[in-house]
């Protein structure tokens, strides 16, 4: 499996239950690499002073969709969904969506 492939290359890894633990180990050079969603990693490094590390984002391993979830029985679910979609559309049209993505240091998103 992938653990053996990493070990054979002389890379150090250690499983952790959270991004915070993974980035802490990476910042302290206890491990050589981690798997993390880029936005979450950037946020952690900006909000946790101990995590300021020279991180190089190498490649996108997988891409996941993010969903807005609403309770089926919420009396205003249709209104809320429409308002969300309308707001997102207006942000894309006026460029504020891309400004937020750029300010967060993230790649362009659909």
Could you explain the architecture of this structure?
The chain has 110 residues and is mainly alpha-helical. Helix content is 47%, strand content 0%. The protein is built from five helices and no strands. The chain has helices spanning 2-8, 19-27, 38-47, 77-94, 96-103. The protein is elongated, with a radius of gyration of 19 Å. The mean pLDDT is 82.
Question: Topology, please?
Answer:
Elements: H1 2-8, H2 19-27, H3 38-47, H4 77-94, H5 96-103
Q: What's the quick description here?
A:
The chain is an all-alpha fold and 110 residues long.
Element order: H for helix, E for strand: HHHHH
> Which radius of gyration do the C-alpha atoms yield?
19 Å
Could you say which overall geometry the principal axes of the C-alpha atoms support? elongated
Q: Helical proportion?
A: 40-55%
Report the span from N to C terminus: 33 Å
Helical segment count: 5
């Amino acid at each position: 499996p992938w653990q053996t492939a990493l070990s054979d290359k002389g890379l150090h890894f250690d499983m952790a239950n959270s991004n915070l633990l993974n980035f802490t180990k990476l910042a302290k050079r206890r491990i050589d690499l981690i798997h993390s969603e880029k936005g979450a990693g950037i946020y952690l490094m900006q909000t946790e002073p101990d995590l300021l590390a020279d991180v190089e984002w190498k490649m996108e391993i997988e891409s996941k969709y993010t969903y807005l979830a609403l309770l089926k029985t919420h009396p205003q679910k249709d209104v809320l969904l429409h308002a969300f979609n309308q707001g997102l559309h207006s942000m894309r049209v006026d460029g504020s969506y891309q400004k937020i993505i750029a300010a967060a240091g993230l790649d362009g998103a659909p």
